[in-house]
Amino acid sequence: MYSFLDWIDAVRYRWKLVALVTGVIGLLAILYIGTAPRKYTASASLLLDSRAPDPIKAEDNPLSPDQTRNAMATQADLIRSPNVATQAAVIAGYDKNPGYVQAWQKQTSGRQPYGDWLAQVMLGQLSVTPGKDTDILEIRGTAKNAKDAAQIANAFAQASVDSQYRLRTQPARAYSNWLAGQLTQAKGRVIEAQNTLSDFVKQTGITNDNAMSTEGTQMAEMVTQLASAEAKSAAARQSNFSGAQARGDAERSQVVQGIRQQISETSGKLADLQAMFGPDYPDVKRTQAQLSTLQSKLNSELSNASGTFSGSRNAEAAAERAAAAASENRLRSLTSQQNARMMKMGTNFAQYNRLKNEFDTAQRNYNDLDQRLTRMRLQGNVPLTDVQVLDHASPPLFPSSPKVGMTMLLALLLGAILGTIAAIVLEFINPRVRSWGGIERRLGVQVVGRIALPRPGPVAISGPAGPRLLEGASS
Q: pTM of this prediction?
């Protein structure tokens, strides 16, 4: 049974075979490196600046880390889309390149659309890698020459920026056109509602909420005045002028007062004459006749004055009752008219509120559409997006494939492994014993001595006995 040391001895004994196999594999690798088509890789980088200020929004809300990662992944998928690949081909000028057209004819015989085939070819030469914990995307382009590799990477970078710009501005412009039509219709509705409200105001005179309040105040004042007029009319109907009142007014007249003054003076004179001359004296008789005449005159004047004052007072009372009744009727009519006016105004006011609400709703709708249209127009004309080309690709100096150093290292390693395997297989097919340790391991007995064979060539004899041919094993 072979041990590990036996295999090592076998490989060491057949080192030339290992070197030969390694050399052959190395030569094949050199031949591959010399004949394999060169591929060059150039890289450009994009910056997804999620913290850039947005000129449309009033407040900037930076993306969270998860949102940033999602945005990076979305941008990477967008770059890998056939639409961006087709645009990159147009930017690079490959859509009209005769070489690509011939390759398309050769591979598809015209069965596949040239744009689809070209997009597949461009995507086959693309590699997109999002940066770790950064906002940078690396775009790699691979081609048979350095210039094309750089051109592909730069074309995809620019196509990505242009595509992002279109995705941001084209929907906004489409919405702008749609909102412009909606705004025109909304303006027509505002004008129609305004004209209807204006005509209604001209017909009814209602302009605002104060009209109803003013009419209500007037109605309250009329009701108060009507109540006062009704009270005065009732008082006037209940007032009656008595005879005592007429006699009192007559007593206060100047004529009656004068007659009473004369009667008083005559009575005093009569009393003096009676005291001096007695009742039968002629002056006494004459004075008594004068007093009787004055008394008769007073009674007649009182009767005439009382009748005059009674008629005058009754006429005034009748006039007052008529005036109170007229005032009551007038106020009652005005109150009824005001009540009817308020009822009509209530109906008109409800109609006014409805028309006013329709106008306000149309105006708000118009203002909202106008604001949205302004925002969409601004967004449709924003000159930049949050995706920008950070670094442009330049033609690489050395090819990315085949990799000379890695290929040679792998070839030498593979050659050494294959040579070692070949040496072990040969040893297994044709085993050899090459050391006294191998004899012990194979036979399982201890070696008691070793015979040193002479090496080819002249041997220098150092002593009379010559070199020792037999060396005893150490005990």
A: 0.52
Strands (E), 80-202: 126-130, 136-143
Q: Are 89 and 148 in contact (CB under 8 A)?
A: no
Instruction: Tokens 């009742």: give the residue.
Output: 279
Coil/strand/helix, residue 470: strand
* Residues 17-62 pLDDT 10s: 888 988 998 898 888 877 777 888 898 988 887 655 555 554 555 5
Domain residue limits at 61:
40-170+383-406
d(CA 227, CA 147): 107
| 214 or 90: which leads in pLDDT | 90
Residue 268 and residue 277: Cα distance in Å, rounded?
14
Residues in the chain: 475
**Residue in the block written with tokens 């072979």:** 2
Q: Look up residue 324 and give its amino acid.
A: A
Whether the CA torsion 170, 172, 178, 181 is positive or negative: it is: negative
Helix pair angle (4-13, 436-443), 10° resolution: 140
Measure the CA–CA gap between 286 and 274, rounded to whole angstroms.
Answer: 12
Q: Are residues 330 and 402 in the same domain?
A: no
- Rounded CA gap, 297 and 255, in Å? 10
430 located within any domain: yes
